[in-house]
Amino acid sequence: MANVDLDDRGLLVPCGACGKTNRLAYDTLGAAVRCGHCKAPVPALGVPVEVHQAADFDRIVAKSSLPVVVDYWAPWCGPCRMVAPELEKVATRQAGRMLVVKVNTDELSDLGQRFNIRSIPTLAVFANGREIARASGARSAADIEAWAEQATQAATNA
Ligand SMILES: [Zn+2]
Predict the structure, then answer these.
(1) What is the pLDDT of residue 157?
(2) DSSP reduced 3-state for 91
(3) CA of 23 to the centre of ligand 1 (A)
(4) Could you tell me where the beta strands, DSSP code E, fall in 81-141?
(5) Which of 12, 13, 20, 102 has an alpha carbon 20 to 30 Å from 42's alpha carbon atom?
(6) What is the 50 CA–ligand 1 centroid distance (Å)?
(7) Mean pLDDT of the chain
(8) Which residues surround ligand 1, an ion (CB under 5 A)?
(9) How much distance in Å is there from the Cα of 151 to the middle of ligand 1?
């Protein structure tokens, strides 16, 4: 599975024009970015981000300027395989508006325990560093989008 590189400050994506790596800083995700090398526009990330360390997860959630939709999943879970392509659609359609992050709870069992994930797939929405919604079970991309948007708006208006 293709994955997105990241560091302490942001997501590392190749420029579509020159191939040079650009950093999309977590705290300005969704803002227009131009390649530091050739000045071509660098599009917002349109794929899910797979995290492999709890520290990366914490950093993204704490700093992201966009709402973060988290998918807690595991390789052996059938419904997780059903929801995976739906999340890819969400990531593509909501590029620059939401960030989709995948957490393998077998690999990152400490995160699963910390957030008390009892069944998978579980989806959660984080905004401004805190969890604002959670739902378990597979659902369609359209349902995920509507649910995440509603949660984000409710949190913004609160
Ligand atoms: Zn470039």
Answers:
(1) 82
(2) helix
(3) 12
(4) 99-104, 122-127, 130-136
(5) 102
(6) 24
(7) 95
(8) 15, 17-18, 20, 35, 37-38, 40
(9) 36
Cα 71 to Cα 80: distance, rounded to the nearest angstrom: 9
Q: What is the pTM of this model?
A: 0.95
Return the exposure string of 62-100: e unless at least 16 CB atoms fall within 10 Å of the residue's CB, then b: ebbebbbbbbbbbeebeebeebbebbbbbbeebbbbbbb
Dist CA 127 CA 130 (whole Å): 6
**Distance (Å) from CA 37 to ligand 1 centroid:** 5
102 token code pair: 């995948």
Q: How far is the CA of 17 from the centre of ligand 1 (A)?
A: 5
pLDDT bin (cut points 50, 70, 90) of residue 2 is low
Active site residues: 77, 80
CA dihedral sign of residues 42, 148, 105, 80: negative
Output the CA 41–ligand 1 centroid distance in Å.
8
Separation between Cα atoms, residue 35 and residue 105, nearest integer Å: 34
Q: Which long-range contacts (CB under 8 A, 24 or more apart) does 140-144 make?
A: 140/86, 141/86, 141/87, 141/89, 141/90, 141/93, 144/69, 144/86, 144/87, 144/90
pLDDT digit string (tens) for 55-105? Answer: 999 999 999 999 999 999 999 999 999 999 999 999 999 999 999 999 999
